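Quick start: what a row looks like.
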Amino acid sequence: MILLRRESVLPEPSSGILSLLLTNGRLTELSVWPAESEQAAAPLNGIYVGKVMNVAKNINAAFVELTKGQRAFLPLSHAENACILNRKADGRVLAGDELLVQVEREAVKTKEPVLTMEISIAGRYAVVFPGKERGRLQFSGKLSDEERLSIARACSEAGITEEILASCSLIVRTNAAELSDCGYEPLIAEAKALLALASALWQTAGTRTCYSCLYRPESGFLTAVRDTPQEQYEEILTDDKQLYEQLHAWLERSYPEVLGRLRLYEDTSLSLASLYGLPKKLREALEKRVWLKSGGYLVIEPTEALTVIDVNSGKYTGKKGMRDTFRLINREAALEIARQLRLRNLSGIILVDFISMDNKEDERELLHLLSAELKKDPVRTAVVDMTALGLVELTRKKVRRSLYEQLKGAPAEAGSQENTP
């Protein structure tokens, strides 16, 4: 179930729209999105004509001004792909260049937003990359061979051919698998709309002035609904009439196949927040200690450099032997850690100190379980290794601020060059 409501249950000074994904009554995902009147100057996935202020060769990066006073960090690992608008491209990025960039990560704490020169425009079923690997139709690795063949055939019959893709590439997302039984018309319609948008953007970019915003994505809470696979929710529920009407109009226009799942909660005897215990769930999502059903617990400690998670046996009083006890608690902890990373939006380097196990087969089994669970996360997350000290290293891609920063309203201030990502 997806719940959407305004900020009345949020701790001060947070404001905005709250989106929650509940699975079997438990929070799986939680985000705070700014109200439309408070949209960030450089929203995630926004596309701009930015101006390079200076190039830091020692870190192979540049600092780009998106709007007056809004600076961002641009890695130069793909400088050869730069779309430079005020001079002929030569594989270099220089101070004074005006170039097409996209916000890839939000500003976090003292760090600026992170940009990319690999422009993309995403929908529910497809992503278009204007100017990249032109003429290619690609597919999510999670789609089966049969689904790929069916989609490729549908695209060809609809006129989405190499000629149409001459100026861009099109990637079909995992969500397209939802359409295998009912037909791929929604995918085709969305792909054509994205291709038209990308073509117009690419053709007009050279005529736009510096600091222009060429593409501003939909509101964050709409994106959250768009990107959530239908198999993960049965309904979209809100108790806010204005949000309901906005969602209804958007779904009717863009994704009518999902419209039947939208419902307005109107029971005045019991609020939506009380029905689902939202204040308690929010408090628990910020607490340092997370209890496990076995009586064990996790201690989650985010720091500036990394996040440390400690697994403890706690109140466990089972009658199993030591090996079975540690194995049981660690397995339960692995499942909960995967959930907490997604719920709290913890990213970067993560170290997990599981309870030590002497049996190597138990360790391999634990890492396999953790890795399999992390693959369910829509944000790229991976098990790196187990260190000589028995700490499990994880990485999770940074995209948005952590849940703590979102709920506590931590300022996302622009930093200095010493605070580069």
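That is the whole record. The mean pLDDT is 88. The radius of gyration is 23 Å.
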